[in-house]
Amino acid sequence: MPFHNCSPYLGRQTGASSDRGMEVGTFACWQPRRGGFYTSAKSRVAHRPHCGVQAMGNGARIPEDQDDNFMARQCRSAAAAVVAFGMFVAPYIGTDATMFEASAAYLAGEERRTVDLFKKNTPAVVNVTNLGMRQDALTLDILEIPQGAGSGFVWDKDGHVVTNYHVIRDAIDVQVTLSNGKQYMARVVGIDREKDITVLKLNDADLTGVNPVTVGSSADLEVGQKVYAIGNPFGLDHTLTTGVISGTGREIGSGVADRPLQDVIQTDAAINPGNSGGPLLDSRGSLIGVNTAIYSPSGANSGVGFAIPVDVVKSSVDQIIKYGKVIRPFLGISFATDHSIDQLGVQGILVLKTRQGGPADKAGIRGTSRDDLGRLSLGDIIISMDGSKVRTATDLYRVLDKCSVGDTLDVEVLRQDSQEHLSIVLEGD
């Protein structure tokens, strides 16, 4: 005798007959009707649940009895209960969904601060496009085309914009695009090649929407503090990346000058091609550096980025705006490379040559020379400047960066087998 099971929890029923094997159908195929239970049109077997009666053939019908009526009433009652339950629980489920949506829109305190920092500083960040000239092969017209792009930021209300020198190097014209989409042509006010800094000036009397960045300080930066970089990596304008200061006092090659960039900030905030010239901000939204380089074999972010400290930037920018150039103090000497000095076993800066009439020449510094017989006579070896030990070119540049034109330096040198102290008055280069 076949057994049938309909489960509203499983939502399926199984049916079996002695000659056809097992059949499986959905719960909805079974329709309680007055006069008995009917199958769907596809079935040839009608069953009365929990009984031993069956009828064969299309439209098979089992006579009505009290059990059938009772079962039909039970099914109708169950269906009504399910509907009622659904009406009861639906508002509750809807309330939960609403609560979930509300919680998804909620921002934690740190997230809120990051969002506010980005919104506040976005208007100060610009896209800098380096425009070059190209002649059309067909019309022979001279076309102005983009040949490079980077980032920058508004320095003041007068429309000065700061970016890296390498961003606009060899540019015929420079175009600056604000966060609101407004575009300006800009002229180069001046450059500081040694610090990889350029100051631009927007060529427009209408500077509506120009919002300068808040300039901070890089004097007391600490490893581990949070930083935020905004720029245009790969042309994706106004992209925010976050990280921490990973190191300070780093030295890297600038790629545009003979001397390295010193005391740069290292960060793990993602810096990619196009970020150059953009601002590095602290958690207060103040400028602490200018993103300038990444260390990466592939050319993409590898978690090691570098920024020029804002105190260095400020010194250069102020002079460029005032004089159109950076007036940097100089000694007027050329000296041996660190590698050559190491090979000679010298502890200091070996002077090879002095500029005639320059500060070092006036102070009596001697360069390397040869006598009439071709014998080499080493020049003075600078071992200290203003009380700071000098062993490498980095040490020398670090001392000079702290000086101004007109300052007098106490320089200690090794000359043959003796030590001498000389006073050098620094001049502007």
From TrEMBL:
InterPro entries registered for this protein in UniProt: Chloro_Bact_Ser_Proteases (IPR051201), DEGP1/8_PDZ_dom (IPR039382), PDZ (IPR001478), PDZ_sf (IPR036034), Peptidase_S1_PA (IPR009003), Peptidase_S1_PA_chymotrypsin (IPR043504), Peptidase_S1C (IPR001940)
Source taxon at top rank: Eukaryota
Leader sequence residues: none
Keyword Hydrolase: yes
GO MF, any single term: serine-type endopeptidase activity
Protein name, UniProt field: PDZ domain-containing protein
Sequence similarity: Belongs to the peptidase S1C family.
CDD domains: cpPDZ_AtDEGP1-like
Alphabetized UniProt keyword annotations: Hydrolase, Protease, Serine protease
Domain PDZ residue range list: 320-394
